[in-house]
């Protein structure tokens, strides 16, 4: 029987690939192999691991194999220790290795110190499956004396949390692993062994080679979703087991608890966010109780922990602290204990760059523990060329960097921004004050700043080579010096010396970059092999003749390049990472990308720091979709180098300013380029009825990106709620029956990051359920099911109904995905949220039942998504008037508000009048079933207690309606007004806009404001005077209004508001005459559905009205109006409106209630607002046919040939679609 000195315990689970290499590292040890026992414990592996182990056992009689059902690594190691025959036990995981001298040196060390220690540790080197050896684990820097024995009372920060240890084989008294722990079981085991003698051995000459699996899914297992209870109980047990009679615990135990907290702050894995409120509050109490045992000194002396995270822990402890101020310093104290003191305040430069060779732009951040107690003041002091000294106080706002090296807010820091004219200054510096205490600035330069502490690079040449900007460490200030040839030559020489020490390629690229003679270089990017907004923006911009050299960067040559680019366009392609790409990048003026990952747009990647002094591009982020997930560390202004962001909505603007710390001028409201391109032709139009389910990916269910692929973990996926509930949906007999009944196909589209699981889900498909294609056209689908995917915004644009299915809400809330919060919560988004498969199928059934009705074919407007304008699309050319004091005047209870007004007072005594009209073009395509149906209905009919609208009520009473306190697409008529209230028609404009109604007035309410006082009194009086002035100037208009008002006065409901009524009438008349006024002024020759009327006998009608009161509904009056008021009608030819005395009249004031008004707005958009000479003839031809047809149709509708009852019966036949769908 062999006598072993060492038993190596190797637990094995699904590691067939690495086991032979692991065992070879043991067999090749310099220590006598006959004295080494190898115990392999197969823990229920599902691959060929057991077979590999058995083969190794046959080859080496030192190996024994144990096989058990999957019970976890702790049980496996315990079983292995039971079989251990060696004097010492060493642990090795089956995908790791040992350096060849390790066992020999560990045994030698243990033999010399056997009576002093029970455990010896040794260095761990970390390998990845992508590259060679990485750095050593940071822990071993604290073994400052090298190989030896360390007292844990004197060196408490040597916490041994990993299994690179050798221990004594205590046999019957052997310490075992806790099989109930699912995390930190190694540390718990080591701690039990170490606390017997409170000493640890360290053997520097051995090495444990740890293979870090980059693509592993197990990295998420540290999340509180899996570990909070076991880890918290472990900490509580440590306290209970080791506290003394005074309730104090050893510093080593304190340090172990603190170390776990240290790295969890960085990963935001302290709190169990998935708990319900009461459970969560109890968890917080448990954390605070554990922290109460950690002494302040232990926290302050904790190595490898930033001071700011130490203060975060003090806050968690609810430590009572107070600041004290000296002449040039401050201190923070808790009782009599000094927690922190300093004579400086850190000013960190996040960005420092030259804009247009003229402006020095600085984005800085004030960091100090004192900021937790008071807001400092920061001053910019600069010296001008004429030696004047100027001091300016910076405006401070809370910084995104308050989330210090963490996704949680750990501290309070303040950011500031400023610009300096480089031509005017000699020197500048920053200093701060706290109360009356002036503090010295301690400058820090971030990775995106040209100045670099590690390189000692503190000066650079501006792009126009006129100035050298330098940070002078001796005076702690920045200087601006005009260049000379000698200064430039000296600077180049200094830089060359810096980079020669690093890499000869750096100087080569820097030298070659100077040889590029092309100017105005713009580079366009998308993610690798994806054609996104960068591609569409590039195609659009390339057509411009503006002297810009534009290039699209492609990842690698493939067949799609031929499909995507014409031969002419292909001359503007650069391969990523090519020499030309690198040189053009260094000389670029703009980087325009739909992905801001550094590796996407920078061919030098992290080595970009060597070139910061010669690059000066503006980074414009096009985005892929709408930013709605909470991703501050990715998209916050202080965390990247974005200069401008293209956005698509008011929601984004507010979100990016308030939460991501951008300024409004950093945002370009232009919409996503891919939404401006009509891609419908590239997809075959599907006649099938289809539903698509497109869930997002889950970070916790797939490995990191490795060589453009992600590693699957089939076991984890199969155990997840995501998989189980989705399989319930895909295999539901009820769903299959519904799909067959309504002849609908259900497509399941996996996120590209989940392609490794495609086969798993494909197996669950059936007759009407299939996997979705890589590229799809949203318009081909009746319904979208998703969760957090930005894919939803493509469907919202196409007005497709959405249901949110979240099968794993707890996992999401716990932070197992890339984010755990949404800036736009699903509950406030664009559809219902469901959490179970049955709830989802209920929603599908409801949608299928609804779309089965005829309404789905003829009237698709009922699918309009709430909040469309606010969240999705702000087209080019719209002006933002949401800050104006806009008001509407309508009857009590009216919801279809299609006109509004506002007035602006100018500094020179003039005014600007705005009339805002409903704008259907922003929501409804002209050639849609919706618009066709509206034209057939012609106009909204008002009954005694109801109405029959031309549009779906959700359109007329919500989306199109100028309702209070919501952003609404409008058509705004803007005109200047002279001090005597005359209209300046030379200033007349009709422009698309976004407006927000601030005041919804009734006629009576407006009348009361006009005749007494109120918030809008001055505005209403002013507008009334303006319209009165126009009526005086045109007697026919005045007579027309007086006649209508006399008629209106017969109605009891209106009799109390004559001025308000007349003002609205006058407003509408002017609005409806504006098209002709502009057409006449600009000689456009517009074709329109003109509203025309021949001469009528106004005087006779007025004489009749003088006879006194009469019944407004009397047959006599109706006969009078018919005989003496010539009916106006629609005409393709303009003959003027004689009743109003107006040469041209086109009704556009009620586009939500009158279909011909809406038609006029569409024509106006095509022939005037979006006027283009390229296809003007074809547009005129198209609209000529449309106008002629619908004018004739509208006139017939209004004639005696169709009675009211005939029209009513026609509209009633459509009754199923008059109300908004439930």
Q: How does this model look, in words?
A:
This protein is an alpha/beta fold. It contains 40 helices and 49 strands. β46 and β47 form a beta hairpin. α12 (504-513) crosses α16 (579-587), α32 (1003-1011) crosses α33 and α34 (1035-1049) packs antiparallel against α35 (1058-1082). It starts with 5 loop residues before the first strand and ends in a 10-residue tail after the last helix. Mean pLDDT is 86; it is low at 850-876, 1038-1055, 1108-1124 and 1200-1222.
Computed over alpha carbons, the radius of gyration is 38 Å
| Structural category | alpha/beta
- For the termini, the CA-CA separation is 82 Å
Give the count of helical stretches.
Answer: 40
Oligomer: single chain
**Average predicted local confidence, pLDDT:** 86
Uncertain runs are: 850-876, 1038-1055, 1108-1124, 1200-1222
Described by strand count, sense and barrel closure, the largest sheet is: 11 strands, mixed
**Beta strand count:** 49
Strand proportion, as a percent range, falls in 15-25%
Give the overall silhouette.
globular
Instruction: Indicate the percent of residues in helices.
Output: 25-40%
